[in-house]
Amino acid sequence: MTCVVGIDIGTTSTIAILIRPPDEVLALVSRPVALRSPQPGWAEEDPREWWDNVCALVPELLEQAGVTSQEVRGIGVTGMLPAVLLLDRDGLLLRPSIQQSDGRCGAEVAELSAQMPEADFVEMTGNGINQQLVTTKLRWIEKHEPEIFARIATVLGSYDYINWRLTGRRAVDRNWALEAGFLAVRERALSDDLIALAHVPRSAIPPVTASHEILGGLTTQAAKAIGLAEGTTVVGGAADHIASAYAAGVTKPGDVLLKFGGSTDILIATDKVAPDRRMFLDYHLVPGLYMPNGCMASGGSALNWFADRLAYGELPAARSQGLTIHAHLDNLAAKTPAGAGGVQVIPYFLGEKTPLHDAQARGTITGLSLNHRLAHIWRALLEGFGYAFRHHVQVLNEMGHPTTRYLASDGGARSQLWMQIVSDILQQPVQLLDGHPGSCLGAAWMATMGVGLSDDWSGPSRFVSLGARIEPNRAHGALYDAGYARFRASYERLAPLHLGTPL
Question: Number of structural domains, the chain?
Answer without folding.
Answer: 1
